[in-house]
Amino acid sequence: MKRISRRKIRFQRFIGYAAFVGPALLFFLVIQIIPFVMGVYYSFTSWNGVSSVVEWVGFENYKKVFTSDPKFLNSFLFTTKFMLAAVVVSNIIGFGFALLLNAALKTRNLLRTVFFIPNVIGGLLLGFIWQFIFVKGFASVGNLTGLAFFKQPWLGDEKTAFWGIVIVFAWQISGYMMVIYIAALQGVDNSLLEAAKIDGASNFTLLTKIIIPLILPAFTICFFLTISMAFKIFDLNLSLTNGGPFNSTQSVAINIYQEAFQNNRYGLGTAKSIIFFLVVAIFTTVQVMLTKKREVEA
Questions:
Q1: Is 19 exposed, middle or buried (0-12, 13-18, 19+ CB in 10 A)?
Q2: What SS3 class is residue 187?
Q3: What is the pTM of this model?
Q4: CA-closest candidate to residue 77, choices 265, 234, 247
Q5: Which residue, 115, 144, 149, is CA-closest to 134?
Q6: DSSP H helical segments within 232-265, as ranges?
Q7: CATH fold for the domain made of 70-297
Q8: CA-CA distance, 255 to 73, in Å (whole number)?
Q9: Left, alpha or beta for 138 (phi > 0: left; psi -120 to 50: alpha)?
Q10: Alpha carbon distance 21, 9 (integer Å)
Q11: Is 127:168 a contact under the CB 8 Å cutoff?
Q12: Cβ within 8 Å of residue 151, ≥6 positions away
């Protein structure tokens, strides 16, 4: 009887776990795992995405990426530079907003909403709005004020287009980072700060020696999110510059999209996506390891 009751308990537990976790695992398997495995398979073929004939070519697609595709390598260089700039700018702005709104301001709830709203707007819509601002709005302000800053061809030159995309990305994502930093700041014990103030610590010392070390887990999360989001940028890049001028601001995601769906070289495009996945995984893993190590040391 004891054995039967134990079996029943185990079976009931299994049914409970299956009912609770099963749907999520099923969706993850269908939406993530199966397409990924199929993508790995197609990266070793010359499939054009339409034909029923799939020809196995082995590592030929990967050889082409590294030996005869300078556009992909240039897009990777641009995306890496963009990622570094976007991560720094987005986190500085987000952390600055969090410090400001963590203070006892009467309008802080309103300001939190205002700063977070850009993250709610879709990337394509946001890109077209800022395209109008850069092309029409800045030109009008430049004509009225005579300031050279507003008269620059923001989306028509390689350097200014790069920083234009960084500005829009940071404007969109900083509010999201702000929310994470605010949550971390609110968990800091005020008694520690008050004790440090009594001992004569300046605001800068409080920030660098107490506040930042205590909220390092928030920096780990924000760095991870901004690195992955910046690497995968597509909609903003597409709507602002479409990779121009002369492919100088083409992200890896746009390059893969054009290869697979415009050039009808799905096998080659999938090979690029697998390489892209591995690079992003390496970057994010190294970042998490380094920041986690700093958390332990702090």
A1: exposed
A2: coil
A3: 0.87
A4: 247
A5: 149
A6: 235-240, 252-257
A7: MetI-like fold (1.10.3720)
A8: 10
A9: alpha
A10: 18
A11: yes
A12: 138, 139, 142, 143
Residues 6+ apart with CB under 8 A from 129: 121
What does the chain come to in residues?
298
Degrees to nearest 5, angle at CA 242 with 261 and 84: 105
Tens of each residue's pLDDT in the chain, 298 residues? 445 577 777 777 778 777 888 888 889 899 989 999 999 999 999 998 888 888 999 999 999 999 888 999 999 999 999 999 999 999 999 999 999 988 877 888 888 888 999 888 888 888 899 999 998 898 899 888 888 888 888 888 888 999 999 999 999 999 999 999 999 999 888 888 888 888 888 888 888 888 998 899 999 999 999 999 999 999 899 999 988 888 889 999 999 999 998 888 999 999 999 999 999 999 999 998 988 887 755 5
Which residue is associated with the tokens 């009008």?
140
In 3D, which of 230, 238, 281 has the Cα closest to residue 80?
230
CA atoms within 13 A on the CB side of 143: 5
Cα separation of 149 and 33, whole Å? 48
- Inter-residue long-range contacts of 40-44, CB under 8 Å, 24+ positions, other chains counted: 40/270, 40/274, 42/266, 42/267, 42/270, 43/267, 43/270, 43/271, 43/273, 43/274, 44/267, 44/271
**Coil vs helix vs strand at 67:** helix
Half-sphere exposure at residue 18, Cβ-oriented, CA atoms within 13 angstroms: 6
- Between CA 6 and CA 229 the distance in angstroms is 48
- Residue 208 structure tokens: 């660098």
Tokens 């605001």, located at residue? 203
Name residue 266's amino acid.
Answer: Y
Distance, in Å, from the CA atom of 271 to the CA atom of 278, rounded to the nearest integer, reads 11
The answer to whether 67 touches 271, Cβ cutoff 8 Å, is: no
